[in-house]
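Quick start: what a row looks like.
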Amino acid sequence: MKRSIILTLSLTTLLYSCEHKEVKEENKKFSLSDSMMHMIQIDTVHYCNVADEISLSGVVSFNENNVVKVFPRSSGQVVESRVTLGDKVYKGQVLAVIRSADVAGNLSDLNSANADLAIAKREMENTEALYKSGISSEKEYNEAKQNYQKALAVKNKTEVALSISGGNKTSTGGQFSLVSPIDGYIVEKKLTAGSFIRPDMGDNLFTISDLKNVWVYANVYEADISRVKEGYPVKVVTLAYPDKAFEGKVDKISEVLDPQSKALRARVTIDNRNMLLKPDMFAKVIVSNEEGMRALCIPTSALISQDSKNFVVIYASKEDLKIAEVNIIKTVADKTYISSGVEDGQKLITKNQLLIFNQLIISSTKN
């Protein structure tokens, strides 16, 4: 009997201890473990200018400061075109071969000038020999030298004229070659084999650009003119690369509305060393303006959406964590602007905060 009473008391004490332990564990406040601390990221709430974004339609163009336009030196007919639009070319590479009457005429004149020079040189040498022998006079010798100098001048003049017209001494059939003056890409081509080049055309046949940087032109309509200024940061997104944003700045805005589109043109220079952007690509140009009001801003990654509400996890220490509901003014890219719910200087968890949010909810439910 005595033994039975002792056993009953022991069991009662053990159950009471277990229940008391469970209550203590349930009431224990949630805190971050050391391993969890390495899995989170923390950022600080601070005031910043509220960014305003405007999306404009645009088109990619080549940088006109880094292009060379190739003009024909003479009229004629295109015998051969050796490059096509978009081809990479190198300095000195032949772009097209043209047959020209002007070059043919200059070659004929050069041949005549060479013949006259040879005759004048032979006469000068003969006269010099006669003069030294006392047979010819000094006057005759001087005249022969003058005739040679005149023939040489005519020959040099004809060579210059041939060079200006595009030909050279080795040209045959009146043909001359258009060559690339720089390394780059053919971004414009206005000729085909067999086409004629008239003297009154005055238009370039090729445009060559290195495409290491390009211009993007954006249309700014009247209602948006005050929201776009030189120096504003820009992100350019194209249909070809919808997940990639090319960054730049507005470096020039025209002062005159285009009579057709009724819009100003804003120009953005974009680094294109990877050659992804091509002239005439359509683009969305997102212009950012941070000259407006100031507000508390937090990383967009810190937000937790639940039941049509937005929350953040405020971090004071690994034992001091709490959930706060926030009211959003607007979200622009990786920043979200807040009107209430947090204070300047508070720290927020921005990575794996959803896990901690759920644990805090569970912990508060137990308590």
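That is the whole record. Residues 101-132 form the longest helix (32 residues). The two ends are 42 Å apart (CA to CA).
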